[in-house]
Design a protein that fits this description.
Elements (H helix, E strand, L loop, with lengths): L2 H38 L16 E2 L5 E5 L5 E2 L7 H4 L1 E7 L4 E9 H5 L1 H5 L4 E3 L3 H18 L3 E8 L5 E7 L20 H4 L9 H10 L8 E3 L3 E4 L2 E4 L7 E3 H7 L2 H7 L5 H10 L26 H8 L8 H12 L3 E3 L4 E2 L6 E3 L3 H13 L13 E11 L2 E15 L6 E8 L7 H4 L1 H14 L14
Parallel strand pairs: 1-6
Antiparallel strand pairs: 1-2, 2-3, 4-5, 6-14, 7-8, 7-18, 9-12, 10-11, 13-15, 16-17, 17-18
Helix pairs in contact: 5-15, 9-11
Protein name: Peptidoglycan glycosyltransferase
GO biological process, one term: cell wall organization
Keywords: Glycosyltransferase, Membrane, Transferase
Length: 463
């Protein structure tokens, strides 16, 4: 190799050595920087993780009742159906991002299951979408026909206590209504949040207590004039009837005089104990949802008039849900079942209140004397009507009443207890005229849905 060639080789080697040296120095610098970074990282906040998509609310069969999109928008696929039960979330416009932001639940399940929903967990309800639709169709038509201020229907599965439907009218769509519930009472769930006097429907409970305590039979006779005086008050009947009635006929004619007279065989404490065992005084009937606290005074505050009034459902106030749960004990052969709205419901919480023969005997009476507008050809239906006065400004109004019907579907082998409540109906104040047809329409739909055929050759309620 020539001298020139050797020189070129050394030049190349020197250049490579310089380049490698710079590379090594750079790597060393990077390593040193990396060693320093851990001391800096704690002072650098990582980007916030996106909040979990709000959990869905679903019916028992998985039908979505409320769902959220990845954008946070809350949707209610069934619209107004079960709106007051589902509730709604807060909604406001974020002007910085020029979009609507959905926040925490303000009412209904959206509020009382907030922790689970906010964590992205789905919540399942016992509601059956078909039963809910049937109840709403019957109720909404009935409220319109009766020109009532509002109405509610509760459908409770007899043996399990699962709430298959909770319908309210007027309805609202959770997707459109917003704000605090106090600003609009229609946003509240009438079945859970409104107190009503149960009126004559409670005569069934008084009759059951008389039978259970051995103080009367269905054939026990009582003198029942159209009115009688108790202390300084006068108790009156509405429907004309013979002056002597059996207990069964007292229920048939809905005699205030008859039931209050027969009930004098009971101690006030005894009747109140049955109210307690049927949870008519229970403020925590459906936890964690809020249910209005009943206004049922204890026997220590009852005089003769208050006791007489209590026997036919006046002077005390409960929610439609409380009435459904208590009446369901008659459907369930005397066993009280605590109502449930959330799945899995678990084993029913039960307690025997009446003997089976007491409950069955009363169902037979309520079927035999069922209101004509509550009857359905080929089926055994039964229940009790009610018309209750409403206190306005501390006095019973002569214009505002509550019309009720509490019954079973079917009455001979109940699968569900149904309670219908209409507040301030204008066309008629009587449950037999405005509430009973709602029960019948709903019963017809339920029997078809359950595939229970009518019995051939059987007239209305076996007549």
């Amino acid at each position: 190799m020539s001298t020139v060639g050797v020189q070129r080789v050394w030049v190349v080697i020197a250049s490579l050595a310089g380049w490698l040296g710079l590379l090594a120095w750079g790597v060393l610098g990077i390593v040193q920087e990396v060693r320093v970074l851990p001391s800096i990282w704690p002072h650098i906040a990582p980007p916030p993780a996106p909040p979990p998509t709000r959990g869905a609310i679903r019916a028992a069969d998985g039908t979505p009742l409320a769902i959220s999109l990845p954008t946070g928008e809350r949707l209610y696929p069934l619209g107004a159906s079960a709106g007051q039960v589902i509730g709604y979330t807060e909604r406001f416009r974020d002007r910085t991002q020029n979009r609507v932001v959905y926040g925490a639940g303000l009412e209904g399940v959206e509020r009382f299951a907030e922790n689970k929903l906010a964590a992205g967990q789905d919540v399942y309800l016992t509601l059956d979408p078909v039963v809910q639709a049937l109840a709403e169709r019957a109720l909404w038509a009935g409220v319109a026909a009766a020109e009532a201020e509002w109405g509610s229907v509760v459908v409770m599965e007899t043996q399990t206590g699962r709430l298959l439907a909770v319908a309210n009218a007027p309805a609202f769509d959770p997707a459109t209504k917003r704000g605090q519930p106090g600003n609009d009472p229609r946003l509240l769930n009438y079945a859970f949040r409104y107190l009503i006097e149960p009126g004559s429907t409670l005569k069934v409970i008084t009759a059951a207590a008389l039978l259970e305590e051995g103080k009367a039979t269905l054939e026990t006779r009582v003198e029942a004039p159209m009115q009688r005086k108790v202390a300084d008050a006068v108790i009156r009947d509405v429907v004309r009837h013979p002056e002597t009635l059996t207990l069964a006929e007292v229920l048939a004619y809905s005699s205030n005089v008859g039931i209050s007279t027969l009930a004098e065989a009971l101690e006030p404490e005894t009747l109140y104990r049955y109210f307690e065992r049927l949870h008519l005084t229970d403020p925590d009937l459906l936890t964690p949802l809020y249910v209005e606290r009943p206004l049922v005074n204890g026997p220590e505050s009852w005089g003769p008039v208050e006791f007489a009034n209590a026997t036919f459902g006046q002077g005390l106030a409960i929610t439609p849900l409380h009435l459904a749960a208590a009446f369901n004990a008659i459907a369930n052969d005397g066993v009280f079942v605590r109502p449930s709205l959330f799945e899995p419901a678990g084993a029913p919480q039960t307690a025997r209140v009446f003997q089976p023969e007491v409950a069955r005997a009363l169902r037979e009476v309520l079927s035999a004397y069922n209101a004509p507008l509550a009857r359905l050809e080929g089926y055994v239906l039964g229940g009790k009507t009610g018309t209750a006065q409403v206190a306005v400004d501390g006095r019973y109004s002569r214009e505002v009443f509550t019309a009720l019907y509490a019954g079973f579907v079917p009455a001979d082998r109940p699968r569900a207890t149904v309670v219908v409540v209409l507040y301030h109906p204008r066309t008629s104040i009587y449950g037999s005229r405005v509430a009973a047809p709602i029960y019948r329409a709903l019963a017809e739909g339920l029997l078809a849905y359950w595939g229970i055929p009518p019995e051939r050759g059987k007239l209305v309620n076996g007549e």
